[in-house]
Amino acid sequence: MKTKLLFSLAFLFAFCSFAQIKGTVTNGQNEPLPFVNIFLENTYIGTTSNEDGNYELNITEPKSYTIVFQFIGFKTLKKTISVETFPFVLDATLVDEEISLNEVVINSEENPANIIMRQAIANREANQERIRSYKADFYSRGLIRIKDAPEKILGSEIGDLGGGLDSTRSGVIYLSETVSKLEFLRPNKLKEKILASKVSGDSKGFSFNNAIDVDFDLYNNTVEIGNKIITPIADNAFGYYRYVLEGVFYDDRGNLINKIKAIPRRKNDPVFEGFIYIIEDQWTIYAAELDLTGTQARIPAVDKITITQNFSFSEEDAIWAKISQNIDFEYGLFGIKGDGRFTAVFSNYEFNPGLKRNDFSREIVSFADEANKKDSIFWNTVRPVPLTLEEITDYVKKDSLQLIRDSKVYKDSVDTVDNQFKFENLIGGYTYKNTYENWSMGLTSPIETISFNTVQGWNADINGFYRKSYEDNERYISFNGSINYGFSDERIRGTLGATYKFNNKSRPYLSLAGGVTTQQFNGNNPISKSLNTGFSLFGEENYMKIYETAFIQTSYSNEIVNGLRLNSSLNYQRRQPLFNTTDQAWYPQDDRVYTSNNPLNESAFGVAPFETHNLIKFSLNARINFAQNYLSYPDGKYNIPNSKYPTLTLGYEKGFASSIEDYNFDQIKIGLRQGLNLNSKGRFDYNIKAGKFFNADDIAFVDFQHFNGNQTQVGTGSYLNVFNNLPYYVGSTNDSYLEMHAEHDFNGFILGRLPLIKKLNFNLVVGAHALATPNTNSYQEYTIGLDNIGWGKFRFLRLDYLRSYQSGFQSDAIIIGLKVF
Length: 821
Hints:
Blueprint: H1 2-16, E1 21-26, E2 37-40, E3 46-48, E4 54-57, E5 64-70, E6 77-82, E7 88-89, E8 92-93, H2 112-122, H3 124-129, E9 133-148, E10 152-153, E11 156-157, E12 171-185, E13 189-199, E14 222-225, E15 227-230, E16 241-250, E17 256-264, E18 273-279, E19 285-293, H4 294-297, E20 302-314, E21 319-333, E22 336-351, E23 363-367, H5 376-382, H6 389-405, H7 408-418, H8 425-428, E24 430-434, E25 439-443, H9 446-449, E26 451-453, E27 457-470, E28 475-486, E29 491-501, E30 509-520, H10 529-539, E31 546-561, E32 564-577, E33 613-625, E34 629-633, E35 636-640, E36 647-656, E37 665-677, E38 683-694, E39 714-715, E40 737-745, E41 763-772, E42 779-791, E43 794-805, E44 809-818
Parallel strand pairs: 1-7, 1-8, 13-23, 23-34, 39-44
Antiparallel strand pairs: 1-4, 2-3, 2-5, 5-6, 9-12, 9-22, 10-11, 12-13, 14-15, 16-17, 17-18, 18-19, 19-20, 20-21, 21-22, 24-25, 25-27, 26-27, 27-28, 28-29, 29-30, 30-31, 31-32, 32-33, 33-36, 34-35, 36-37, 37-38, 38-40, 40-41, 41-42, 42-43, 43-44
């Protein structure tokens, strides 16, 4: 009964309160028209109709108004009304636009659409420069639905997703709204102050429907929607689009509007397909209806994205400006199918108000106080697009459910069910949680961690953890521990650790850890335990080389100022060498035996690569993201690195107080890493690292600078941090070094132009890798490969051919694996 009352009140508020001019927009068949632009003539005060065709125009002063109804494909309608009392009901019926080719003089020598688009491209920058800066009001609403969902994904229950799914396994899983003030300065300065934010079912939540995420300016050469998408009026658009003039019509001001269909020349290029409307003589955009596939956007889960933009003219400013934008999408993955829509409305423009660069900082999103505490009266006053019945229902349902689900009784009842031990916990581990008090604890299963190496033989870990969060996860403390047992060396090792996170702004972490463990000589762990297990047992290739360390370590990390994060650690270590204890293999090779555990000499069985010793090691590292922008949410700071500049890392490491004096050392390090989107030509990434040791002539091999090699021909992790044809410890040094990696992913720029091959949707990737150290010849690798290999939406495979050189040709290899940047 209470829920029904809440629903009724919300429905009345949504449709009866505060809407001063309201109504329904329909077509000639009396069908509702969604997303019609409704605004006061010669102003940017307006709204759009919702999916049910209903609209609300918040006008408070009784007088005469001319209301404009504008919608692509229909004649613009103007209605002059005299308002004496509120609310005022004004319905509208739009008739189809008469689009004709009769008035177009066809030049047999050239496609008329090409003539129009050349003019639009030639005037692109001039039209863009008409708005050097602006201030505006911004409203955004995001809705994501699931139309069908399985009970389980990969054996795990997915539940009802916070009350979003009903018994038919469908429903709204995300609904949110944002009201903001915007300031913009060309070319790319955008600042947003969020006045109000609302998330269905989460009274403490903050919407992520930011203006920066939907800032798709079709006057740019590209817009970023997952991928860099080439716009229909880009400078190089004719290399990617064919154009067809579908027809012309006149708007309410007598402007001739050309309806142009943009057709991709190649199916999988990063381009749109659809219609763009160009105003004759002014060569500006009147509207756009453009589609994009998930393949083109490089968002595998998405089937289709549709962007609709509408522009309106201000006679006072002589400017066409965007007043509304809809982003519709359909998606499907792992049996889940759904769709969604993000609606944006721009209003109350103030053009060219004299904004300057120093009016903007690196903070691009901020929130007003109590932005997520606004009540329904506020929202019904400011919301430019009325809620649909589906949205009203979702708000009422989830807000009611939240009261229940936030209660101790409910959370305890859910935990009682979830905390029951199940058979699958023997394999996947067990977690016990107290959701109301925000803590959890658990154990991993040793079955998950079983591995084999020639030092420990078969070995497995049992890991345990405890975590307690405070203030909606802004702070937390965690404890973790592990026990490892090796069945061949009959040795138990274990570690304990604790970490405290102080806040969610600069994210400072303090941790303390200690124990006894095995460690690869290369601390980057160049070969995984699973790969080493497979190559050892099936091929007698024991690539993993380990030693034992007993340690106590404390670490601290914090972002000192925006873009500068410092990481420091101080640890005491007692290191000792380890030796093979087993030669077990499932498929012994006649011409092969296991190598020693000495990375300096594979045949040095029983010979230690270093002497047992104690050492204290201090490290200080800085990571600098130049010109880093950030979003200031009340619950945290979210950084956005600037791709125009590389990320710089600086490091200093010192080993001292060693029980063997020669093992003390100093090292300085520097690194640069950057990824550059080259529009239609793909993406170029590089990673450069260099360093220098001091007083390190006779240090332990543990402290050498090691480089990530690969002898498995299986590619894993980032390809920008590995030499895929270099033995694991061949290049290790205690002197100076220079390491360079670079790759270019053409993203269909080349293969997308080749007949038949383009249907495979593979991407060509080329790379170069180099390593230089004193007293040895430089090492180089050159690669050419295919990325995006797979089937359907699952395209995670990569295949590379590689040639390596060191004083001439060394060898070649085929690398099969995954590419992860």
